[in-house]
Structure formats: C-alpha cells, structure tokens
Amino acid sequence: MGKILVLANNDIGLYKFRKELIEELLKGNDVYISLPEGEYVKKLIDLGCRFIDTKISRRGTNPITDFKLMIRYKKILKKIKPDVVLTYTIKPNIYGGMMCRLAKTSYIPNVTGLGTAVGNSGVLQSITIALYKLAFKNACCVFFQNKENAEFINGKGIIKGKQKIIPGSGVNLDYYDVLDYPEEENINFLFISRVMKQKGIDQYLDAAKYITEKYSNTKFHILGFCEEAYEKKLKDMHDRGIIQYHGMQSDVRKFYKVSHCTIHPTYYPEGMSNVLLESAACGRPIITTNRSGCREIVEDGINGYVVEQQNSQDLIEKIEDFLKLSYEEKKVMGLSGRAKVEKEFDRQIVVRAYKDEIKMI
C-alpha cells in the first residue's frame, strides 16, 4: 500500500469537493489528511482517512504563525514519509510545497484561486510570488482551476515544470442531479456564498431592493456565513421582507429545488465557482460576473447571463431580462447549463487527472 498525504486548510471543502477523489485514493493506499479540526473531520475519518490535527490561520499574515505551520508540516512529513503529497489552497500550497521540496517528497499543488494577496499589487503580492517560486520549483505537476490563474503564474516565471488546467473541483453529477423546474407563482433568486463585500453581496442587496419593490412576486434568498460587517444590514433587510437570510446550510439542494436562478456577483479571485457548477448541474440558470472562475461556466444568453463586476445597475437589468423570459425559456436555459457541466465539468475528469499523475509518480 502507498501513503498519500493531503494538506488542506479546512474539512468542509475537502469533504464536499474532493470526497470522490479521496474515495478513489483509499483504494489501495493509506490516506492521511492534515487540516484543522472541524465538523466534517468525522465524515472523512469514516471514509477511511487518518486525521492529523493541524492549525492554520487561513487569512492571517503573522510570519511567526506561518513559520510554526512550516515546522508542523516538516514533522508530519518526517513521521509519515508519504509517497506523494496533495496540497490545496494558498498556505498548504506554499508552506507544504516548500517542506516537500526540502524533504525530497513528490507533491502536487492545486491552485484553487490566487486570493487577495496575489490579486492586489503591492508588497504582499511580491512576497507571495517569491514564496510560490520556492514552493512550486520541484512540484511533480501544478494543477490550475482556470486559464487566467495559470497565465498569471506563468507570467511571473514561477513554474518551470509540468502543469495542467483542470475544471475546478468538478461537480458530482449524481449528487447534484437535474431538478424539476419550479412553478412560477413566486420567482426565487438564490445567493450562496460567504456574505462579504468581494462576493458581491452589496450588488445583490441593491438588486433585491429594487426588484422586490417593482415585482411583488420575487423573493431573494441568501445562504452562507455572514461576516460581522453585514450582520445588521442583513437582519434589517430580512425583517423588512426584502431578503430571506437562511444562514449556513449543510445541504443546499432543497434550496435549489425551489430556486429559479442563482446569482453569484462575485469579484473575489475565484479558482472555479462550485456554487455555479452545482446550480447548473441542478438545471438552474445562473447570473454571474465576467471574471475567471465564473465566465467559464456561463454562456451569456444560453444558460444564464454575464454582468459587469460591482455594477448593481447591470445586475438589475439582467435580472429583468430573466424575468421577461417565458417559463419554458427559463427551463431550457437551466437545462443548457446542465448539458454544459456534463460535458466540461464532471468531477470524474478531476479524479482521472489526479490518478494519472499519481500513477506516474
């Protein structure tokens, strides 16, 4: 049996978006997972994974904390002696990659998005790019989730070796099966994301206020963790009936079932939007921004609409365009999205890409 070590920054993403890969890796291998304790860790252990509790400050920039993470990774590598290491997200990619390089251990990083540290120019970007160069130098293969991220990294001369673009995390087409399109007594719009500025929540709330006042049969739903800065505003708009805030949800399929359209007005540096993949897989039209990680999933006017970033008026106009469609046109738009993800974003494409690389290692 081989030993495979997975470095990640949270249990939820690992279980929800990489469960099928882990199940495949567990066939004939011991799989170790290094990440912080969380509610989905037990599910991962039940699959057969061996859990290593590893604290990570996901958004912190304290060098002492990050140095401790590097030392933690070094000790884990020395103890486990894995045949290959898979890393996800910025800190595991960088610090895990650097320690794998020093330990002469084979590793495959996955760039799930560049994040704000790289997305915004400045000192922090320069430091992060320098760290990426150190981390990716001896990688067996670097996986990217969209073309724009790959072009940016390659433009900085970070990668000298093998690389591949994969369709994000893909989507489980059985779990997110196509759903019957709901009747139109009320038109339900859905926002699923962390409630934060860069995810486009301001534009969504602007649109909700305008549309609900003009079209009484519309409802705007929000799912996801709410950052403190928006707690009061969401409560106020919920109490006034402009939006319906449902908080964090472990299974969003019941909301897709009654939803007519998913709106994802993000301008955060995405890898590939899982929300859009899941929505399209369920046969729901999507409205999203013209940026990498989103535009790849939507064909404007075919399975949804593309809007300008941080442009509330453009979002309002696209929502009105959607409302003008007949019931059958909305339904066909949703089914077009399903056909697209079946062809281009099946999660098994991602699983096969990993299996091929690991087999070569």
Describe this protein's structure.
Strand 9, helix 9 (228-239) and strand 10 form a beta-alpha-beta unit. The chain is an alpha/beta fold. The strands form 2 sheets. The chain has a 7-stranded parallel sheet with strand order 3-2-1-4-5-6-7, with helices on both faces. A 6-stranded parallel sheet has the order 10-9-8-11-12-13, with helices on both faces. 46% of the residues lie in helices and 16% in strands. The protein is globular, with a radius of gyration of 21 Å.
Q: Oligomeric status of the shown chains?
A: single chain
Task: Quote the beta fraction.
Answer: 15-25%
Instruction: Please describe the biggest sheet, giving its number of strands, its sense, and whether it closes into a barrel.
Output: 7 strands, parallel
Mean pLDDT: 94
Any idea of the CATH class of the largest domain?
A: Alpha Beta
Strand order of the largest sheet: 3-2-1-4-5-6-7
Ends distance: 14 Å
Bin the helical content: 40-55%
CATH superfamily of the largest domain: Glycogen Phosphorylase B
Give me the count of strands. Answer: 13
CATH architecture classification of the largest domain: 3-Layer(aba) Sandwich
